[in-house]
């Protein structure tokens, strides 16, 4: 990049509503939360299941409000049943987080297996494309992780979701932290 282009880039970067300090703070907080989740994977699993349960409860209430506000619709019954199912699933997850973790872990493993198989099929249809090997690698990784989760189920249900949450928080934290540091350096050369 030429000096003029770099200078213009830096000036345009300063005009953006980005605050490197906010990203750095967010990154540090996410790294700390990720490390805590990895240190206490069972607790992180239970907290995440309860969190999902609370969201399902809120979704159920919203579905029921919607159903009752559109009584003239022919789909009133469908919206009501959907809301009640959300409420039941939410109550189940909040009251029985261990059983909820088992169900969510099985669904997660099945989703990875299905996604891996689908990506493998897409790769087979497009293997002549440049870079298609990456699709095959991605497919095999998803398939392998899904099979590992499924083969350890239900015993692994108490820690898989917490482990995934911890790794996700950690990687997002490092990404935000490093992006914030890079922006800070770029904005203040």
TrEMBL record:
InterPro entries, per the entry: Acid_resist_chaperone_HdeD (IPR052712), DUF308_memb (IPR005325)
Alphabetic keyword roster: Membrane, Transmembrane, Transmembrane helix
Pfam families per record: DUF308
Signal peptide: none
Transmembrane segments: 21-42, 48-69, 76-95, 101-122, 134-153, 159-183
Keyword Transport appears in the UniProt entry: no
Protein name: HdeD family acid-resistance protein
